[in-house]
Automatic annotation (TrEMBL):
InterPro entries membership: Adenine_glyco, DNA-3mA_glycosylase, DNA_glycosylase, Tag
Native source species: Flavobacterium resistens
Gene name in the database record: tag
Catalytic activity reported: Hydrolysis of alkylated DNA, releasing 3-methyladenine
EC number: 3.2.2.20
Name recorded for this polypeptide: DNA-3-methyladenine glycosylase I
BP term (GO), one: base-excision repair
């Protein structure tokens, strides 16, 4: 049974799925490459849509995209892309599907250069989360100079659908930044 006395960031109170994501994942530092890649794919598909839309389809994405196995995704053929275009359980945007393939390829190039994608992405924060002190979650920015910098570098490395807003959302999702409101119960966990 859910504890209704918990104070959470205001954006997550519309559904149990949102609350679960907020309580267990959002803002929790992620250092493993498979999870970082999963969030990168999900965030790129979110571009222009609400996060709850993506969360509601997350398991469909997981099944359709081989459990976010970037090595498999990097090898997707045109036939596989067409198969994904017919999958009503995911966002059927051909440019985003093709971006998932090219992003998997770019992801592996970053791994080769830095030893892991985690080493690459976390170097921007010296391996530690940035803790923002927000009175309310509405104060969280959509972009920052750091997300601008990371976005620019990722694009230079061949990544697609990685604008600064997408990258800042990725940073929040993977705990590179902690934008939980000051009164949110997760600030003290």
């Amino acid at each position: 049974m859910e504890d209704t006395t918990l104070i959470r960031c205001s954006w997550c109170n519309s559904s149990d799925l949102y609350k679960k994501y907020h309580d267990e994942e959002w803002g929790v530092p992620v250092y493993d490459d498979p999870t970082l890649f999963e969030f990168l794919i999900l965030e790129t598909f979110q571009a222009g849509l609400s996060w709850i839309t993506i969360l509601n389809k997350r398991e469909n994405f997981r099944a359709a995209f081989d459990h976010f196995d970037y090595k498999k995704i990097a090898q997707y053929s045109e036939d596989k892309i067409e198969e994904l275009m017919q999958n009503t359980g995911i966002i059927r945007n051909k440019l985003k599907i093709k971006a998932a393939v090219s992003n998997a390829q770019a992801f592996m190039k970053v791994q080769e250069e830095f030893g892991s994608f985690s080493n690459y992405i976390w170097k921007y924060t010296d391996g530690k989360p940035i803790i923002n002190n927000l009175k309310t979650s509405k104060e969280a920015p959509a972009t920052t100079p750091l997300s601008d910098e990371i976005s620019k570098d990722l694009k230079k490395r061949g990544f697609k659908f990685v604008g600064s807003t997408v990258i800042y959302a990725h940073m929040q999702a993977t705990g590179m930044v902690n934008d939980h409101a000051e009164d949110c119960w997760t600030r003290t966990k």
